[in-house]
Write a structure and sequence with these properties.
7-stranded mixed sheet, alpha+beta, single chain, about 20% strand, about 325 residues, Beta Polymerase, domain 2, Methane Monooxygenase Hydroxylase, Chain G, domain 1
Length: about 325
């Protein structure tokens, strides 16, 4: 689906143009064309390949999707794939944004992404002195918008982790805590899959061996790279904290089980007194054996109760009951 097809010259918008006129504007000096597609069909991708003379392997990757974040160079074209990550309810929705950036064109293909990038276009048009840099600045602006959307996700993960940490020592909440921690770990891993490869890819756009198209926006790309490094560091901290929290929860489960075992052992010791007396004397005689006096039975009961009370007090003082 075609979202926008706009021609710019010297940082200013000329007009929205039909796809058939793209090649005419590409021949104009100081002019570049910015096309945005969403969930593009095979016919649309074939048309874009014809208009912009795109490499067939890059077109195939953009059409097929499910690519890792990367930056690849095909002649004078930079092909970039970034993963979009958006929060939908309590789950993360991931998508892809493929960017073709040439000397006088930018083609962005959004796939399965929950949010659009109309704000990027509006921002670029408000800053004609930057838009004058051409397609390289648009490529940066799109990548920067994707990376900026990672920060609220990281903030959400950290807030949820703090909430779980506050409940770690709540009695009876350990099972629920472990389940939530594993869900949180999965979300952090999804975001990490988007961040780490992109961080390495953007790093290759910096330095003396950077592609010609990216040479003019290295300062801006360095800012994107710095953001990715910060996000990666926070994700490492979240991952380590989750691992520690899981171990603490498992330890709390073991402690609770130990407390239960102590209680069971204490009550077993107390009732063992009755078992021992009953086992020796049987309790089926008119008078207690070996005590042949009529107060033998109540005396035995009194002794059993006394010993049980003593054991109960002893275990209570030791913290077993």
């Amino acid at each position: 689906m075609l979202i926008n097809c706009v021609a710019y010259q010297e940082g200013k918008k000329l007009s929205d143009i039909p796809v058939e006129d793209i090649s005419d504007y590409l021949d104009k000096p100081g002019c570049f064309v910015w096309v945005a597609l969403r969930d593009a069909s095979a016919d649309e991708m074939a048309k874009m390949q014809e208009e912009f003379n795109l490499h067939e392997l890059a077109v195939e990757d953009a059409a097929r999707g499910h690519q890792r974040p990367k930056v690849e160079e095909y002649g004078d074209c930079l092909f970039t794939v970034v993963h979009t990550v958006d929060l939908e309810g309590d789950r993360l929705a991931t998508g892809e944004l493929a960017i073709f950036a040439g000397p006088n064109y930018v083609l962005s293909v959004r796939r399965d992404a929950a949010k659009n990038f109309l704000g990027v276009r509006a921002r670029a048009e408000r800053e004609p002195h930057l838009l004058k840099m051409g397609s390289s600045f648009v490529m940066y602006a799109l990548m920067d918008a994707v990376v900026d959307r990672y920060f609220p996700i990281v903030d959400m993960l950290e807030s949820e982790l703090e909430t779980i940490e506050d409940r770690i020592f709540t009695h009876g909440a350990q099972r629920n805590n472990v389940e939530r921690l594993y869900q949180l770990k999965r979300k952090a891993l999804e975001l990490r899959h988007a961040v780490t490869p992109l961080m390495d890819a953007v790093g290759r756009l910096l330095g003396g061996r950077a592609p010609t198209l990216a040479a003019g926006v290295q300062d801006y790309m360095r800012d994107v790279h710095d953001h990715l490094i910060r996000i990666s560091g926070r994700l490492d901290t979240i991952r380590d904290t989750i691992a520690t929290a899981i171990q603490v929860n498992l330890s709390m489960v073991s402690i609770d089980e130990s407390e239960v075992n102590k209680r069971l052992a204490a009550w077993a010791a107390i009732f063992a007194v009755f078992t021992a007396f009953a086992g020796v004397w049987g309790m089926n005689f008119k008078f207690m054996p070996e005590l042949e006096w009529k107060y033998g039975y109540p005396m035995a009961i009194a002794v059993m109760v006394g010993v049980c009370l003593y054991l109960y007090r002893l275990f209570k003082k030791a913290g077993w009951l």
